[in-house]
């Protein structure tokens, strides 16, 4: 790897796509942000993506063209074939040969990666997780995602998947989860779960400073209200923090991790979640002193999967480095 190398990276979500031109130290030289518009057919969205990627490639400084592309996607992948098998939040996106399509369109090798894993590698190499050998990166968004770094390598198991921390059950009779089971962590601690808890509080007529419609409540509004001492927001964050603490304590005990980085769209609630995570760790941690593990807020935010995707193109942090797929 050369310090002058440049990479293209794209993070595909159900709502938005982020793409960037990234250097070999994870710095984003230029970026694009555009809607996925999940109501449109995938072929139209893919044409948009290619147009944005080509524009980004054209912004590379003279003599420093981007040579490969990383694509982070939610869902079930066949990574060896560069195939998206399906993406639960993206209707119509099943059996899409992503590496093949983008490899031909961009005329460069492509690496298809789980989006949460790319996020985790970005935070570990360039963000809040720098210097830790064993950590979990947790994203609080529509669901709760997890990316695991073990002994300075991304752990993605035999199925190129992220760690499904969001579906660890906390209560067998809890709220119904998108996975079809009940009481999963993400029914409480995802942005969706926190909004649900807040809505239920409001609909029950309990006191709150919130004046909008219950179905328009956002985690950002709850963070703002929590600053003013809003009872609803503080109680929801307490519940979410305790749920995260219970699952993190089990994972720390199981794997001997040094820390967790909390990111994703609802990471703005970090200051309210952390004390409760810490309190539960103090009760439940067996393998280390509670003060000996780190609970950190994401530093890169939505740049994390771009920086991480670019790093993965070089094989950094991989258990079994494999060259990106070249167009056939
Ligand atoms: Zn679930």
Describe this structure in words.
The chain has nine helices and 13 strands. It is globular. The mean pLDDT is 94. 46% of the residues are buried. Strands 3-2-1-4-8 form a five-stranded mixed beta sheet, with helices on both faces. With 328 residues, it is of the alpha/beta class. It folds into two domains: 114 residues, Nucleotidyltransferase, domain 5; 169 residues, 2-Layer Sandwich (Nucleotidyltransferase, domain 5), CATH 3.30.420.40. Bound molecules: zinc ion. Zinc ion binds next to loops.
In short:
By secondary structure, the protein is of the alpha/beta class. It is built from 9 helices and 13 strands.
CATH superfamily of the largest domain: ATPase, nucleotide binding domain
Assembly type of the chains comes to single chain
Q: How do the SSEs run, as a string of H and E? A: EEEHEEEEHEHEEEHHHHEHEH
Count of domains: 2
| Major β-sheet strand ordering | 3-2-1-4-8
Task: Summarize this structure as a short list of keywords or feature phrases.
five-stranded mixed sheet, Nucleotidyltransferase, domain 5, globular, 328 residues, 2 domains, 9 helices, binds zinc ion, alpha/beta
